[in-house]
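Q: How would the structure tokens look for this protein?
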Amino acid sequence: MVKAIQFPLMSQKEFISFVFDSNILSMKEIVDMMKLYSGVSLNSPLPFLHYPQELCLPINVTDLVFSVRQILLRNILKLS
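A: Here is the predicted structure in token form.
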């Protein structure tokens, strides 16, 4: 499911506010996103969808936050 989220279409502020501390991405994926926002060339393509919005199912920040919470809750329950 995480690979279907359009992280590259989020603003840097949205990414930092809702995704950065959520632990749903690896450190490499976070660094790659920071490179993308900074205009630095990436060594490999991003694994996330980055098509124009009309070609993908839209996701808004509220849906993303809900999805992140669900993923975190499942991971917490697995550890219990």
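The chain has one domain: 2-79.

Helices lie at 12-19, 27-38, 61-79.

Upvote if useful.
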